[in-house]
Amino acid sequence: MEYSILVADEDPYVHMFIKNAIESEYLDMEIISAYDGEEACSIAYNQEIDLIIMTWELPILDGIESLQKLRSDTKTADIPVIIITASGNLEEAFDAGANDYLAKPINTVELLIRVKSMLSMFKLIKGITKQSAELEKQSEELREKNRILKEERKKSDDLLLNILPYEIAEQLKNKGSVDAKNYKRVSVLFTDFEEFTHISEKLTPREIIKELGVFFAKFDEIIEEHFIEKIKTMGDAYMCVGGLPLRNKSNPIDTVLAGLKMQSFVNKLNEYKRAHNKVEWNLRVGIHTGRVVAGVVGKKKFAYDIWGDTVNTAARMETAGEIGKVNISGETYKYIKDFFECEYRGKIEAKNKGEIDMYFVHGLKKKYAVEGTHFIPNKDFLTILARY
């Protein structure tokens, strides 16, 4: 049967009349009978009912009470109801939840018209409800896919930001490529551990990786505080640069402060190692200021890198330095000399570079440092730095 119609009336004649009227039209409908309001509500709750034709005058529960009970339950709330009445208040019936009415005595033509109309409407509403449910399900699936997509995009973006500076990563995402840029004044910092090969012989590969991880994680933290960009690590060497991709005039000062903090961290760690008979790691730091070209190399495994004579000179500052100290070139010195205590070393021979003026930086001048420290800027110095 296409439809199930529940007829609720205490008069068997009404059931027979409605059944004969529907069968005479050869309509594909099943008639289910109830003879009181309570029975009608029970059948509607437990069976699939498409339409209820209910008389006003029912025993146990009358038509209005039955309507109210049907509408209060989610399983029966949406079943269309035609109320049969001879003298009842239709306004009261509609307020209780009736969808349509039939007047007594029932007219066959009117009965069939109202039944067909109500079932058509019910079918339409059911279809819309089903479609709405399907759309809601699709919408929920889409929201879930979007959530997963956002999570994956965030993972991808975070991974990209671990490889590239933010500005470069954004340019790469938006354009698909990154233009190489010239920078007139940046400060390149190199670090390297003395006798790393000798250290490696005393430690297991796992211990070496763990130790380097501690140092490089701290170096990452330090340079982030000073707006310095990490370029790469090469074995036990660490390379970073101040003044790009966002240009700033304070980069020589920034990198020197970072270098002092790196040496301070390593020196303190070595004090602990000495006290516990552990292998010490002795650090050299070199800095040079000058021109570079910066860009992204590679198509699959992207790498942000810098090129130019400044990079080579900075590397020479590191190799020509001494453990526990920050060695800078004369070019870097001219930008930081007013703020730092420096020791002129003279012209030092650098491989493939000839003689270069070099300086050891011992720390901030006393008037610019927090009392008792040599690399923590005081308020006066921070005020000056903010003008750059």
What does this structure look like?
This protein is 47% helix and 25% strand. It folds into 2 domains: 3-131, Rossmann fold (3-Layer(aba) Sandwich); 181-386, Alpha-Beta Plaits, CATH 3.30.70.1230. The strands form 2 sheets. Strands 6, 7, 8, 9, 10, 11, 12 and 13 form an 8-stranded mixed beta sheet that branches. It has a 5-stranded parallel beta sheet with strand order 2-1-3-4-5, sandwiched between helices. The protein has 12 helices and 13 strands. α4 links the parallel β4 (81-85) and β5 (100-103).
Summarize the structure.
The protein is of the alpha/beta class. It is 47% helix and 25% strand. The protein folds into two domains: 3-131, Rossmann fold; 181-386, 2-Layer Sandwich (Alpha-Beta Plaits), CATH 3.30.70.
Helix and strand arrangement:
Blueprint: E1 3-8, H1 12-24, E2 29-34, H2 37-46, E3 51-55, H3 63-71, E4 81-85, H4 90-96, E5 100-103, H5 108-163, H6 166-175, E6 181-193, H7 196-202, H8 205-225, E7 228-234, E8 237-242, H9 251-275, E9 283-297, E10 303-307, H10 309-319, E11 326-329, H11 330-336, E12 340-350, E13 354-364, H12 379-386
Helix pairs in contact: 2-3, 8-9
